[in-house]
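User: Modeling request: complex.
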Amino acid sequence: MSIQHIQSTQPRLGIVLGSGMGSFVESFDIEAELPYGELGEIPASTVPGHAGRFVLVRANGIPLLIAQGRCHLYEGLTAAEVTAQVRVMHRLGVQILVLTNAAGAMRADFNPGELMLISDHLNLTGTSPLLGGPHFHDMGEVYSQRLCGLMRQAALAAKIPLHEGVYAGLLGPQYETPAEVRMLRTLGADAVGMSTVLEAIQARALGMEVLGISTLTNWATGLKNEILCHHDVMAVGKQSAAKLSGLLRLVFGLNLNSETELEG
Ligand code: HPA
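Assistant: Request completed. Predicted assembly structure:
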């Protein structure tokens, strides 16, 4: 399906799916799909669990552009490359961008399998997609308070526990040491991951409204006696996909296709 077709539908709402969230797409009838490779500007992700394509679905008649898979700095890419996807989505008409990710929980009162609304972030990647300009962009409200409010209401209505907190975005690709997790806690972070912050910065610089949600896939290093691995992270991410799609459906009035059952 061509980029012109997607552009002609003017999708206002876009969603970037994090690790293990790919199945979110299956709850919709797919109208069009476009592999990133056909666009030339978005690098292919080398990470398992990250398909590389845009999928256009209609939800309640409303076009929704889903980015199934993202690439990361730790794949050896630049901040500009990692955020090309966001610029393409903006060009295709997206004004509201939902960024989802898998993250490690750094609070004992958060549990793997639960969701965290990102209230703010720490960009600890050491880089920015805005190198070279625009300079000095305001970052006072990266994550839209309006959309956070809608998510809180949806979570209450659906009786889905929804934590809130600060997401620390690190370079990776290794998971953290216990000392690093203690440092991140001291800095005020509640969850840790290796994505999202650069995309959110880019989106805000383009004037998009951003919603960020972490699926807490594990306790961060040192909180429990666990060895972290990507396979387990993906498995928990997959289990949380249904909760997340339920919330997003409520927030944006999305209508899922008839075969799909949602659970809380
Ligand atoms: N640390 C960093 N990134 C992650 C984690 C984590 O514990 N879990 C999922 N992504």
